[in-house]
Fold:
Amino acid sequence: MAKTILVTGGTGKLGSLVVGLLRADGHDVRVASRGTGPGLFTVDWKTGAGLDAAVAGVDAIVHCAAAFNDIAPDRALVAAAAKAQVPHLLYISIVGVDKIPFRYYATKRAAEELIERSGVPYTVLRTTQFHDLIRVLLAFLARSPLMFVPSLRFQPIDVSEVATRLAGLAAGSPAGHVEVMGGPQVRELTEMARVYLAATGRRRAIVPFRLPGKAFGRFRAGDHLAPDHAVGKITLEEHLASTKDTRKVAYR
Structure:
């Protein structure tokens, strides 16, 4: 059954993929964006202006917009959704936000808690880091002849696989916290650095180093990993082979 679905952050990498998948399935999709243009619902995330119009009459909201270290946009969206009695709010989050004392993760967890307490029927999907984030990080580190790489493990997943899961969840009923999604492999970042250098034809001396602090201690403990939920299929090698622009990145 076709639904009217609002996608926040619908012009970003993750959001635009979700929009395309939902429209291909016959849904009426609205896109909330800071920008203006045909088919866009312009929203001022600082004031909440435009949100009431964007959420009016929708069957579901897919919240892909990323607000770094600022929960105000999430609070404005949840308030608008509650006021409009939206039947389903779907939020994309990150594995480990409830365990790792990292500022951005704390913001994501605060948004989850806000949604949980809102009274709006919801679904929360947590995933491991996107390939895009790892790629952009490695591109930055490779700018130096000596490539200093943190001694950490990651389990990157492809944004297209997450978008497919989100589109499916948006078409369904609220389900609370659903099973997390992890990438196909848990790998040392130093190993992924070698893969990145080979894929981009660069030569760098890789120098592992240890990041201090409680947050990185939790990363070293693997609180951001989901090895028992390695549902992703696309590997880093396949991602790099299909990507030309090393600067673009998908966030949540």
